[in-house]
Amino acid sequence: MFRPLVAIGMLVAATGLSGAWLQADDPPPAKTTQPKAATAVGAPQVAERWYKAGHGEDHSGYFHVTQEKSKALDVPIVFTHEIVEAHEGRRASLTIKVFCKDNPYFTPVRLVSTGGCGATPYTARIQWRPDKTGELLGMFADGGPADGTGTESDPPLTENTVACFVVFDIVQRLPFDKGATFAFHFLDELELNIDRNCKISYRGTEKITLEGKEVQLHHFEQKGGNMKPVQYWVNDKHELVRVVTDGELLLTDEAGAKAVLDAALRKQGRE
After folding, report:
1. Which end of the chain, N or C, is less surrounded by CB atoms within 10 Å?
2. Which of 162, 176, 26, 183 is nearest to 103 (CA)?
3. pLDDT of residue 179
């Protein structure tokens, strides 16, 4: 899922549009609680969030997410995920726009990725049929090697597929209920494969230390597919505060996020 934003790896992954897809089977519906699309009780409608990104206290960039309404009838919700990192003293970035249906999974219909490290940006586009077939219509890259269309080996996206960073929004809509789980298929926005039969479960409240302060947060855990477990911590307002897997995301504001990037660029420039 989320890695420590190694810029070259991000760009290779995002332009490798013909990468391996995993066949996705529908997860069982039993004992599953799904959040209501866009209007879950207690889930604030926040249009923008900023996170420090990196490993523990060694943050080297930031993650910025926005959500907005679209005028297109087939894709009424648009998430924009911006990943920015200091890489060898230079600013590397990747921006992914996810055009989604307005349903409990925010099923993706289109992905548009734009990124670069230096003066050679690229744009990659992926399109699925917006009806229930979810058929892959095409994959195109400007400045990348992967122009083409889908093949029979590329399975369709089912309604219960969630683009990976969109999970950050969904976890904020889930109830604080140990008996509830959210079952879905996980579409990796960076490597463009599907991890099937993932689940997010509520683990209860716990006290953790963030930047020297002890806070009590609600803990969710994601398991399944071929990925490592992902840990999420949400506050009483249903705001996602921390994400931990290979790397870490920590909620901050715009000034805090950009200060992390500036500090990492200065440090790398001295090394």
Report:
1. C
2. 162
3. 83
